[in-house]
Amino acid sequence: MADHTQATSAGVTTTTRSRPWLSGAIPVLLLLLSLVTLPPECSAFCPSKCQCLGGEANSRALCVDAALEDVPIQLNPETKYINLTVNRIRNLEFSLPFYMKLEILDLSQNIIETLGSKNFEYQSELRTLNLSRNLVSSLHKHAFKGLTNLLLLDLSFNRIETVHPTALSDLASLVELDLTNNNIVSLEDNSFKGMSTLEVLVFRNNRLLDVPASNLWHLHALKSLDMSLNLVEFVRNDSFEGLKELLALSLQGNVMSELDLSAFEGLISLKHLDLADNNLTMVPTQQLSKLSNLTYLNLGGNRFSQLPAVAFLNLFHLRELHLSRLDYLQRIDSR
Ligand SMILES: *[C@@H]1O[C@H](CO)[C@@H](O)[C@H](O)[C@H]1NC(C)=O
Ligand SMILES: *[C@@H]1O[C@H](CO)[C@@H](O)[C@H](O)[C@H]1NC(C)=O
Ligand SMILES: *[C@@H]1O[C@H](CO)[C@@H](O)[C@H](O)[C@H]1NC(C)=O
Ligand SMILES: *[C@@H]1O[C@H](CO)[C@@H](O)[C@H](O)[C@H]1NC(C)=O
Ligand SMILES: *[C@@H]1O[C@H](CO)[C@@H](O)[C@H](O)[C@H]1NC(C)=O
Which residues are in coiled coils (predicted)? Predict the structure, then answer.
């Protein structure tokens, strides 16, 4: 194409064939026509508040803090990266099917209330999806349908209360799931079924009343589980059974007053355990004694009145033991 016309009245900059005999309102019409008739290499547009970078092979769009209310649909359909953080986007309907090559999508800090159903159906290449700091309150049955290659999903700082039991089941490649700061009280059985590649699960600051044991059972590859700042009072026998790869577990900041004797059964790889800021009145000696590979243990901020002589039986690899803020401590048996 030899000549260039700026069609800025439509809020976009584009390339069209120049028609000197046309003027006035015609450029808008021309723009619409060109959408239909231009060959593929000319069909990409960059909204005025976005920055579009890279060539065909590595097309990227940055639309950060651009006051957008919708996902722009006129970007290069080959785009692999779209950053829409800090906008006013409310819903995702009918916009994403245009971008089938998308690998990274940042939708954090918008006002999305629902992810709807099947809105990611064509994003089989997507690796990273950031939905942090939106207003999502539930995850519907087909919310993530199509995201079979997604590795990282950030849903932190939303208002999620309900998760449909099959909402996450399409995420067969997921490695990291962040649910920090939501309102989840419990999960239905089999909610994590099929997530056999998940390595990092963050449930920090929700309202879980129990360890979701029957769900964790499916996460055979899990390496790190953060359930800090929830409302767990009691950990039942075998709650973490099946998590043979788990290296780090945090239950910090719950309201646990007791642990069943086999609460930590099966955590054969565990190295890092944080039980700080709970309501434990006795050192859980027997429960800990099976964690023979533990190197870090935090029991600070509990309500122990005494530390018996053999409180830490069998913990031969322990390198760091935190016992600060034991406000109820009266006696240490140092035999
Ligand atoms: C999107 O842009 C923001 C602001 O520049 C940046 O902090 C963030 O890392 C970007 N997101 C991704 C996924 O690259
Ligand atoms: C997602 O976006 C939020 C806010 O923009 C940011 O703090 C967070 O680090 C991002 N998550 C990931 C996994 O990059
Ligand atoms: C938990 O397991 C221990 C054996 O390790 C058993 O003595 C105890 O009764 C079990 N607790 C419950 C509630 O089943
Ligand atoms: C401790 O870790 C080693 C490898 O570092 C492993 O072979 C062993 O099985 C672990 N111990 C237990 C009790 O599983
Ligand atoms: C846990 O301890 C706090 C004070 O630290 C107390 O207010 C609360 O009632 C206790 N909760 C349970 C379930 O024991």
Answer: none
Angle at 32 between CA 30 and CA 33, to 5 degrees: 65
pTM, two decimals, is: 0.87
Q: How far apart are CA 58 and CA 78, in angstroms?
A: 8
Q: For residue range 104-154, what is the model confidence (pLDDT) as tens digits?
A: 999 999 999 999 999 999 999 999 999 999 999 999 999 999 999 999 999
The per-residue DSSP string of 135-199 comes to ---EE-TTTTTT-TT--EEE--SS---EE-TTTTTT-TT--EEE--S-------TTTTTT-TT--
Q: What angle do CA 42, 48, 49 make, to 5 degrees?
A: 130
The reply to whether ligand 4 has any atom less than 6 angstroms from the CB of 237 is: no
Q: Relative to the alpha carbon of 253, which ligand is closest?
A: 5
Strand partners, 152: 128, 176
Cα→Cα distances 190→104, 221, 245, Å = 28, 16, 20
Eight-class DSSP state of 94: T
Instruction: Specify the 3-state DSSP secondary structure of 191.
Output: coil
Ligand nearest to the CA of 157: 2
Q: What does 235-268 look like in DSSP terms, one character per residue?
A: E-TTTTTT-TT--EEE-TTS---EE-TTTTTT-T
Q: How far apart are CA 145 and CA 168, in angstroms?
A: 8
Secondary structure class of 164 (helix, strand, coil): coil
- CA separation for the pair 138, 115 (Å, rounded): 8
Query: What residues pair up with 335 in beta bridges, in sequence order?
Result: none
| Dihedral, CA of residue 112, residue 116, residue 118 and residue 119, to nearest 10 | -30
Q: Position 229: which residue type?
A: L
Give the three-class secondary structure for 26: helix
- Ligand 3 site-directed mutation target among 240, 260, 290, most atoms within 8 Å of CB: 260
Positions in the chain whose pLDDT score sits under 50: 1-42
Cβ of residue 268 lying under 6 Å from some atom of ligand 4: yes
SS3 content of the chain, % helix, strand, coil (to 5): 10, 15, 75
